[in-house]
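Help needed: design a sequence for this.
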């Protein structure tokens, strides 16, 4: 049976709930023309924060699995990355058949797949390097994102944030900079993570009952991510045909 980390599952569960609430509001606002939130900052920073949480947790789990020698060969990390990338491509194909206001070319699953491959090289660096390089990557990505760059070339949109005119509108867009910075910060946290002290909180009787639903959501976060939008869209379509 796969070994679980209750604390990690709880954090994932919180991120899943936040993501579902945000996408519910997004669908209402942009797909069903219900003006629920007028603040542009909300639509920019809330998904940014949710994705940062997902990416950081992904980095923590990569770190934990490297420590357990689970990804100690190229073949193993490529197998993991390919699986995640395949899920991402399924979502990409869906956006070509349905109108979501844009296409997904490099979403969070594509990003995690590429970051997982790169982590094979970076995990071996010191904690200090991981922290500072990850932090600087995040700051650089935020800075570039605020510049609202528009370029004709479509070849580097996966690397840093800009609007590629040759491709058109994109949704669920997470380029390597700053996303890989959050992965590195997660790897850093994974190296100092203490299962013995942290998970004890979530396995005691009082907290276990309270956090069990969050742990359950965290365990199936990938499938929930894949299926929640069709469910939300179907429900809202019944309410606002």
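Sure. Designed sequence:
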């Amino acid at each position: 049976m796969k070994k679980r980390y209750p604390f990690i599952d709880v954090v994932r569960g919180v991120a899943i709930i936040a993501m579902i609430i945000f996408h519910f509001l997004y669908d209402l606002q942009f797909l069903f023309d219900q003006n629920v939130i007028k603040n542009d900052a909300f639509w920019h920073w809330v998904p940014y924060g949710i994705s940062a949480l997902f990416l950081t947790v992904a980095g923590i789990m990569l770190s934990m699995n490297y420590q357990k020698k689970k990804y100690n060969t190229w073949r193993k990390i490529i197998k993991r990355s390919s699986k995640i990338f395949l899920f991402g491509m399924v979502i990409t194909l869906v956006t070509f058949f349905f109108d979501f206001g844009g296409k997904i070319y490099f979403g969070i699953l594509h990003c995690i797949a590429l970051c997982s491959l790169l982590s094979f090289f970076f995990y071996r660096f010191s904690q200090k390097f991981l922290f500072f390089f990850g932090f600087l990557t995040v700051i650089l990505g935020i800075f570039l994102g605020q510049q609202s760059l528009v370029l004709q070339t479509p070849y580097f949109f996966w690397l840093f944030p800009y609007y590629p005119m040759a491709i058109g509108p994109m949704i669920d867009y997470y380029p390597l900079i700053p996303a890989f910075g959050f992965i590195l910060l997660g790897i850093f946290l994974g190296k100092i993570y203490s299962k013995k002290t942290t998970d004890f909180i979530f396995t005691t009787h009082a907290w276990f009952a309270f956090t069990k639903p969050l742990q359950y959501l965290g365990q199936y976060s990938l499938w929930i991510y894949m299926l929640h939008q069709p469910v939300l869209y179907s429900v809202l379509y019944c309410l606002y045909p």
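The mean pLDDT is 88.
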